[in-house]
Write a structure and sequence with these properties.
Shape: globular
Strand content: 15-25%
Largest sheet: 7 strands, mixed
Radius of gyration: 24 Å
Strand order of the largest sheet: 19-20-17-16-15-18-21
Oligomer: single chain
Number of strands: 21
C-alpha cells in the first residue's frame, strides 16, 4: 500500500518558537546535497514557520541553525563537521541558540554526531522531518540533546507544510526511497524502499503550485522512471508525464533522475509527445566499462545506455542530455577508464557531474578489493573533466544562432552588470546570460525572454541579440503569472500592498490534501 496521505500534516505552534519578549525566534537552513535535499529543506522551512519561527534576515544571526545533510559523498561529511566546528564558537557567544542536524548523514551517523559535536541540540533523520519543531522544543525544555531517528516514514514528506524558494518553479516528489542495490550507494539504507505517491495526489500538488503562480515543475524521485512499482503499473511514469500536459498554465516539466535499466520506450514517447515536457534528460552513466557497471550492480551495459541516447535523440533531436560519472571505482583498470572516455565521447553530453569514488562505510564497495590510490583517481578525474569540458563547449557552440526562450531566474546571477545581462534557463535547461537593450524594460524573475544565442562557454550561453548591430536586434519579454507571483512576494516581504490587479487574482492558501501553499 502507498503511504499517500489525504490530509496535510498539521504542525502545532511551538512555545520554543518565541523569545522571552514574545517575538518569534529566527531560523536558517544550510543544505548539503542533491535536489531531494533542497526540496526537503523547503519542507523544513515550512514546518518551522508553521510552528511560529521566522526566516532569519541574516542567516549567521539565526536563533536556530539547521544543517540538512547528504551522505553520498565523503566531502559532505567533512562539510558537516566543518560547519559544526565553526558553529561551536558562535553558540558559546549567543545565549539560547540551537543547532539541529538532519538528513541522510544524520540517519546514518545518528548518536555519533552528538558524540563528535556535543553542542548539537537535535539530530533527526530522513523519515521524520516534521518532528523538528517538537524536537527543538523538547531540547530546550530538557536542556539536553534530542536524537530521533525513525526506520520508516512517519508521514509522506509531501504532506508537510512547504515554503517554496521560487515563485516560478517548484519541486514535486513522486516517490521516496530506492529499490536498487548499487554497491557504491548508501541511499537505500538511509531513505528506505521506494514508496510511491498516488497520481491524483501528485497532480493536485502540481495544480496547487500552478494556481500559486508557478509555470515550471520538476518531478523528483530516487529513480523516477520506476514510479508505479508499488501499485503495480510499470507504465505509470509515462502516463504521469502525459498527464502533466493537461495541467493548464504549466509550461515546463522536468524530472530527475531516471535509471537506465528501467528507461522504456513509452517514457521516450511521452517526452516527445507532451509539449510541456522539456527536451532535457539527466541519464546517469556512472561508468562506461561493462566490468565496472557489473561490479557496481548497475543492471545495464554501455551498449544499452548508448542505445537509449540514440532513441531519445531520434524522437527529440534537440534534447540536451546530462549525466553522472564516478571515476576510480574499486578495481577500475586503465582499460575500464578508457571505456568510460569512449562512451563519454560517443554520448556528447551537454554536461556531466563527475565524482571521484570515495569509500562510504556501510556500502558493499567499501569492502571491495582493488581500492585505487588517490593519485591514480585524481589523474583519471582530470582527464575526464578535460574531455567533458571540450564536449560541453562544442555542444554549446552548436547553439550559437539559435533562438531560445529563457525563464528568468532570481538566483542564477547576472553575468555582467556593464551589459545589463540577466540570467535564466532555456527550455533544455542550459544556463543563459542575456543582455537587455538600453532603455528596455527589465524582465522579472519568472518572465520568459526570447533571445538568440551569440556566444558560448562550457557551462553557459551568452545571448546578446538585443544589442546586435549587424542585424535586427532580437529581444522580447513575455510577462507571466510567475512574474506576477514574484511581484506579490516582493510586495509582501517589504510590507507593501500588492497592486490591485495582482491582489484581485492572487490565490489564497490552497489545501488539496497536500502542503498548504501560500503566495509569497
Amino acid at each position: 500500500m502507498s503511504l499517500t496521505a489525504v490530509e496535510p500534516t498539521e504542525i502545532a505552534l511551538s512555545p520554543a518558537a518565541m523569545r522571552h519578549d514574545g517575538t518569534p525566534r529566527s531560523y536558517s537552513i544550510r543544505t548539503l546535497g542533491c535536489q531531494m535535499n533542497v526540496h526537503d529543506s523547503e519542507r523544513l522551512s515550512g514546518s518551522l514557520e508553521a510552528a511560529g519561527y521566522i526566516a532569519a534576515e541574516a542567516p549567521e544571526s539565526a536563533d536556530v541553525i539547521v544543517i540538512n545533510t547528504c551522505a553520498v559523498r565523503e566531502n559532505a561529511a567533512n562539510k558537516l563537521y566543518g560547519n559544526l566546528g565553526y558553529l561551536a564558537g558562535v553558540k558559546r557567544e549567543r545565549d539560547g541558540m540551537q543547532i539541529a542536524v538532519g538528513g541522510c548523514l544524520a540517519q546514518k551517523d545518528q548518536g555519533a554526531i552528538v558524540e563528535k559535536a556535543p553542542w548539537v541540540d537535535v539530530v533527526f533523520g530522513t523519515h521524520n522531518m516534521g518532528s523538528l519543531p517538537a524536537l527543538l522544543e523538547r531540547a530546550r525544555h530538557n536542556a539536553e540533546a534530542q536524537i530521533e531517528i525513525l526506520e520508516s516514514l512517519e508521514v509522506f514528506p509531501s504532506t508537510l507544510p512547504t515554503k517554496r524558494d521560487s515563485a516560478s518553479s517548484g519541486w514535486v516528489s513522486i516517490s521516496v526511497g530506492c529499490n536498487n542495490t548499487c554497491t557504491f550507494c548508501i541511499v537505500p539504507s538511509l531513505r528506505g524502499k521506494e514508496k510511491d505517491r498516488r497520481p491524483g495526489d501528485i497532480l493536485a500538488e502540481v495544480q496547487a503550485l500552478v494556481d500559486d503562480g508557478a509555470i515550471e515543475v520538476t518531478l523528483l524521485g530516487q529513480n523516477v522512471n520506476t514510479y508505479g512499482v508499488e501499485f503495480g503499473d510499470r507504465q505509470a511514469f509515462g502516463k504521469l508525464l502525459r498527464a502533466m500536459g493537461g495541467v493548464e498554465g504549466l509550461e515546463r516539466v522536468r524530472f530527475t533522475s531516471p535509471h537506465p535499466a528501467a528507461f522504456t520506450e513509452d517514457v521516450i514517447a511521452a517526452m516527445a509527445e507532451t509539449p510541456n515536457v522539456m527536451p532535457v534528460l539527466h541519464m546517469p552513466l556512472q561508468s562506461g566499462s561493462d566490468a565496472v557497471l557489473k561490479a557496481m550492480r548497475r543492471s545495464y551495459r554501455s551498449k544499452k545506455f548508448l542505445g537509449i541516447l540514440d532513441a531519445v535523440r531520434e524522437r527529440i533531436p534537440n534534447a540536451a542530455i546530462t549525466t553522472d560519472i564516478i571515476v576510480g571505482f574499486p578495481g577500475e583498470t586503465d582499460a575500464d577508464f578508457e571505456d568510460t572516455l569512449r562512451v563519454v565521447e560517443e554520448s556528447r553530453f551537454a554536461s556531466a557531474f563527475t565524482f571521484q569514488y570515495s569509500i562510504r562505510p556501510g556500502t558493499p564497495a567499501a569492502e571491495m578489493d582493488g581500492q585505487l590510490p588517490k593519485a591514480v583517481v585524481q589523474e583519471r578525474y582530470e582527464r575526464l573533466q578535460a574531455l567533458q569540458e571540450r564536449i560541453s563547449l562544442e555542444e554549446n557552440q552548436a547553439q550559437i544562432g539559435r533562438t531560445v526562450e529563457v525563464l528568468v531566474s532570481a538566483g542564477e546571477g547576472k553575468k555582467d552588470a556593464a551589459t545589463r545581462r540577466f540570467s535564466g534557463r532555456s527550455e533544455d535547461n542550459r544556463l543563459v546570460h542575456f543582455a537587455v537593450p538600453e532603455g528596455g524594460a527589465e524582465p522579472r524573475p519568472g518572465d520568459v525572454v526570447t533571445v538568440a544565442v551569440t556566444a558560448a562557454a562550457p557551462h553557459f550561453l551568452i545571448a546578446d541579440s538585443a544589442l546586435a548591430l549587424d542585424r535586427a536586434p532580437l529581444f522580447a519579454v513575455r510577462r507571466t503569472r510567475a512574474g506576477d507571483a514574484w511581484d506579490r512576494r516582493q510586495a509582501e516581504s517589504c510590507g507593501v500592498p500588492a497592486t490591485p490587479a495582482a491582489a484581485d487574482t492572487a490565490p489564497r492558501v490552497v489545501s488539496l490534501g497536500l502542503p498548504a501553499i501560500r503566495p509569497r
